[in-house]
Amino acid sequence: MRPCRTHAPPQRQEPAPELSRAPAPRHKAPGAVALLALAAALGGPPPAAAGAPGAPPAGPPAPAASAQAGAPPGDAAAPPGDAAAPEATPLAEGRPVVSPVQRFDERDAPQRACSFTLPVCVHAPADIPGAALLESLAHLEAAMRAYDALGLPRPVQDGTLGGGPAYDLYLERGPRRGPLRVGHDMRALGERFDAASAFAVVAAPATPGRGGCASASDAAYALGHAVAARLDAGAEEGALAMTASYLAAVAAPCPAEELAAVDAFQRAPERALTGAALGALDGALLFPWYLDDAYGTGTPAQIAASLLAIAAQSTPAGAARFHAEPDIFDALRASLRSRGKDVDDLLLEFAVARAFLGSRSDGAHFTDAERFGDFGRVRFEWSLPYATLPRRVAPLRPIEPTGATYLWLDLTAESAAAPGLEAAEITFVADWELPALFRWAIVKVDRQGAEAGRVEVAGIFGSSHAQRTVVGLDGLSGLLIVGVNAGSMIRSHPFDPDDAPFMPHGYTVWLSR
To answer: What angle do CA 371, 218, 176 make, to 5 degrees?
Structure first.
């Protein structure tokens, strides 16, 4: 069942109507089939426990310090129905058209090994063992077969660059010390929308045949980036990093790499979903994984690829940077709008779901989530015993747009000592900085660690305050309070991943009994 909201979320001003129009198909796959699949996929219900509505709100205490101090006076949104139409704004400028990563010169990488059956090649300096080339080539072939099976398009052919039209992977000397380097060529000619061929520079396998799964993961990541550049070469770097990470995790699972990436992501839930840099597996892969898990039709990467295809744009010849509008969040807004949902709802659903990852999994939010163990546990800002209330708390670090924050109210001792908690109530009051729009959910967690219900607190445009009272605490181990920064409350300026570096915002939460 879907969680029961306390009241319906407010209507938001959506992007211009042309964003909802899918571009004409330009690839063999996913093409129009993928775009139609996205519209169908986003109609599925998310996995969630039954909601539990709270009692009418109680009067909040006066805040010790206003979280709204210093807010710009012009940032408050106009009341619904009275807002003037937003002025036309220029298209956002995205990544440079000329890649900062360059291909190896043929003299620096004279060795070349190409597949007999697939358009992939590996290049290397003269002192790299031939076994390393063959192993990397095998990894590339395996990744391309996996992406073919998923119905994803192959990378754009690069003509004579690298000696032929095949995708090129360059090996470099030395151990694997850091992120691989991915680059793209100039915008492909003859394409209606931005598309570019791509390549990558990775460390050669140190011990061919005994190097573990890292080399396979690197090859799958590099090829995944090339697939994404085929769908939308002008996509923002964070979106490409997130998509390439997810594709690599699907095509070449590598537990050691994924555990490290997810652990880093869960330790910093306050960071934006699109804040990653290209080149390394990033834990933001959990977001497209959640989209497939909760809304997909069973084929991995379908929604992630379709979002890039929908968000494709056309940059005029001679431009120094790609035009980055629309972006994948514009595509999400347009797709969710027809389903009666909003991106804010999706962000809150995902924020709740990632709290039940790893050893905290209850089996109802992510499939196969237990494999991450303690590395998948999201960081809680505070863990507060019930007996210490009332308390006012603030986060260690402010929250970036699309980032999340978590508080835990422990009811274990009280549940064991006083089984009459069903008559008790908790008052929740949140204040945050303008112009951010925060969304909140109070999740009831039973003694088995599963979600037993939730109360969602919708953000109100023009307000930086939220309040709820929750009753029915008997039999619970605690209340999980989840907040997400949904971006600006200015309707004409929704979250845009090209606005990095992102402006984070703080909050305070008051809990009383």
So the answer is: 105
In 194-283, DSSP assigns E strands to 196-203
**How buried is residue 24: exposed, middle or buried, by Cβ count under 10 Å (0-12/13-18/19+)?**
exposed
DSSP lists the bridge partners of residue 112 as 123
- Using the predicted structure, report yes or no on whether residue 50 has a pLDDT greater than 70: no
54 in Cβ contact with 469 (< 8 Å): yes
240 alpha-carbon distance from chain centroid: 11
Bridge pairing between strands 167-172 and 196-203: parallel
* Token code pair at residue 183: 């680059």
CA distance 395 to 509: 9
Instruction: Identify whether the C-beta of residue 204 lies closer than 8 Å to the C-beta of residue 171.
Output: yes
pLDDT band at 81 (very low <50, low <70, confident <90, very high): very low
Phi-psi region of 404 (alpha: psi -120 to 50; beta: other; left: phi over 0): beta
Q: Which two tokens stand for residue 379?
A: 């960081």
- Please give the structure tokens belonging to residue 383: 């863990």
| DSSP character string of 158-174 | -TTGGGSSSEEEEEESS
State the Cα angle at 399 between 292 and 247, rounded to 5°.
25
Q: Is the peptide bond before 395 cis (omega within 30 degrees of 0)?
A: no
3-state secondary structure of 433: coil
Angle at 479 between CA 477 and CA 480, to 5 degrees: 120
What whole-number distance in Å separates Cα of residue 63 and Cα of residue 468? 15
> How many alpha carbons fall within 13 Å on the CB side of residue 51?
16
Which run of H or E residues covers position 137?
A: helix 130-149
In the chain, the amino acid numbered 452 is A
Question: What are the pLDDT digits (tens) for 287-306?
Answer: 999 999 988 888 899 999 99
For 123, the token pair is: 């290049």
Distances 163 to 105, 111, 226, 259 between C-alpha atoms, Å: 11, 11, 18, 37
Q: CA 236, CA 306: separation in Å to the nearest integer?
A: 15
Report how far residue 184's alpha carbon sits from residue 315's, in angstroms, rounded to the nearest whole number: 15
Can you point out the beta strands (E) in 285-403? Answer: 321-323, 382-385, 391-393
Residue 19 confidence class, pLDDT cut points 50, 70, 90:
very low
* Ramachandran region, residue 373 (left: φ > 0; alpha: ψ -120 to 50; beta: rest): left
Beta bridge partners of 451: 445
Element (H, E) at 128: none
Does the CA dihedral 12-15-20-22 come out positive or negative?
Answer: negative
Structure tokens at 317: 């010849």
Q: Are 366 and 293 in contact (CB under 8 A)?
A: yes
CA distance to 155, 202, 224, 272, 285, per residue, from 276 (Å): 22, 18, 16, 8, 10
**Do residues 189 and 142 touch, judged by C-beta distance below 8 A?**
no
